[in-house]
Amino acid sequence: MPLALATALAALAAPASAQTDDTAPFYAGGSLGVTRVSNVYRQATDAKDDSVTSVGLLAGLDQRYGRQHVTLDGSLQQNRYSTNQDLNYRSHSLRAALNWQTVGDLSGVLSAKSDQSLADFNLGAGVNPVLKKNIETNDEYQATARLGLATRYILEAGWNHRSRNFSAEEYDRFVYRQDTGSLGLYATPAGNVKLGLAVRHTKGQNPRYPVGVALQPDPLDPTKPQLVVVSQPNDYSRNDVDFTTRWAVGGHSTVNTRISRSRTKNSLDDILRDFSGTTGSVGWNWDVSRKLQLSLQYSRDTGQESVVRSADLNRVYTSWQLTSNYEVTGKISLNANASSRKGRRTSSTGAVVPDAIDNTDSYGLGLRWAFSRSLILSCQYDHVNRDNSVPQYVFNASSYGCNGQAILY
């Protein structure tokens, strides 16, 4: 997706998800946004700029039924480019969750989400930049059950299904589906400390992973063979042992950590090397004051398990992200973010160099004005810089725009 267009659309929908309360369990509304993008296709040279207008519908539900709590948030946008009109597309975002609880110590969550948007035009990882409309779809379903064995102990079991699809066949290697099951025991030895030990098992598949090229007869002219990409399924499995901690410091700061021993095996082991190593993450949320909040996240993991959506399973990423929010007044707030990610290829046939780099740095600034409970205006500026061993993957891009929404209850 063009830089920050996803952020702009999220800014339209996100505020609405928190608009419901006990007296107004549902909402509906509309949104309008305009974003200027400096480098639509994220090209190293000959960058093309354009303006994108997004018109959307918003709706949601937040309702309690006894011990059960149901939430639903959805948005649908029509996105139109001023110049590159062949990229016009529809996007959507849907979130649903049921927080359930029995009379005893058994509780849990059932959730589902689905997103559709314009994919990044320049993912890298051996794929040439795509200069056409490419729709990306991500779906995820989760089920979690918790049993409180005592006041200090919780047994938790979970299941997660994720899938990703693209409309452009050039992105076949990034298509996947996977299921993960987990079982963990969590203890609270002190009021401000929580410890956890869990095991996870993941089974997945890349249904169309490219393994080479071959000559095949042209259907229109059999005398002229054509070069086509040959794909095969890659079945993979992953086992993790997770040690987690949660530490609340002084009531204003919380630190979350995860250290995992991870092992991944691929059926296409002649192309994709199996991974074995230590992964993990650290998160720090700090309420500096009533008006200022800071959040810092750091992670090291393989592509599909990290926050880097554009990664494939053949890379290890280290990334960090800093976000902040400052309430200037009761109606006006400022936000800022900065992030960096560094990719390392564990193996890949046809790699330009074995230690190829893929580093991306970005930052953003935003302003949000809640004119009233029903009317919200937000403006955002974002910039991203990417450095890569492959020249065609290097680019700079920025965007800025404003978005408004009106909500009815």
From TrEMBL:
Keyword annotations for this protein?
A: Signal
Protein's UniProt name: Beta-barrel porin 2
Signal peptide region: 1-18
